[in-house]
């Protein structure tokens, strides 16, 4: 990959790392697992970046790669993905520390979301990120109608979990 592409990747990663942290928060229960998943998602984004053609927004593409990485790793815990070296110091990526205290007020929601299946978690995450159903459907590879129906069902599930 050329230097211009590397710089573009690093800039996009820097600007969008909070979405990766949020995905990590959905799929992990402790700080070490969060850091490991963040690193693995970053590596998978780096490996996939040469195929990014810009047909979709970078965030849409990054959601898809990050969610697929999280789902793959946590659905098949015994299996690991092959990785390549990505030295964040070499590319000067300043990783922001994820502050769990700032997220304390939504801890109950995260606990409820943890009880959902992988696809439901991804849908809720994107919904909470104010993504429209078109983008959610495109990212998850389902129809827009299916995304709406699933979200309505998930809302009902979450209400039951939060208000038993």
Automatic annotation (TrEMBL):
It comes from the Bacteria. InterPro entries: RNA_pol_sigma-70-like, RNA_pol_sigma-70_dom, RNA_pol_sigma70_r2, RNA_pol_sigma70_r4_t2, RNA_pol_sigma_r2, RNA_pol_sigma_r3/r4-like, WH-like_DNA-bd_sf. Keywords: Sigma factor, Transcription, Transcription regulation. GO terms for biological process: DNA-templated transcription initiation. Gene3D superfamilies: 1.10.1740.10, Winged helix-like DNA-binding domain superfamily/Winged helix DNA-binding domain. Residues 108-158 form the RNA polymerase sigma factor 70 region 4 type domain. Residues 14-80 form the RNA polymerase sigma-70 region domain. Pfam families: Sigma70_r2 (PF04542), Sigma70_r4_2 (PF08281). GO terms for molecular function: DNA binding; sigma factor activity. Belongs to the sigma-70 factor family. ECF subfamily. PANTHER family: RNA POLYMERASE ECF-TYPE SIGMA FACTO, RNA POLYMERASE ECF-TYPE SIGMA FACTOR. This is RNA polymerase subunit sigma-70.
């Amino acid at each position: 990959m050329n230097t211009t592409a590397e710089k573009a990747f690093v800039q996009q990663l820097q600007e969008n790392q909070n979405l990766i942290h949020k995905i990590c928060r959905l799929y992990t229960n402790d700080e070490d697992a969060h850091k490991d998943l963040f690193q693995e998602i970053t590596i998978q984004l780096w490996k996939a970046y040469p195929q990014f053609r810009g047909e979709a927004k970078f965030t849409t593409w990054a959601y898809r790669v990050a969610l697929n990485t999280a789902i793959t790793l946590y659905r098949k815990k015994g299996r690991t993905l092959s990785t390549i070296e990505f030295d964040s110091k070499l590319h000067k990526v300043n990783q922001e520390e994820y502050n769990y205290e700032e997220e304390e007020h939504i801890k109950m929601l995260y606990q409820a979301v943890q009880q959902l299946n992988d696809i439901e978690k991804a849908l809720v995450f994107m919904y909470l990120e104010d993504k429209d159903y078109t983008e959610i459907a495109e990212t998850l590879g389902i129809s827009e109608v299916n995304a709406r129906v699933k979200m309505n069902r998930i809302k009902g599930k979450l209400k039951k979990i939060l208000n038993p």
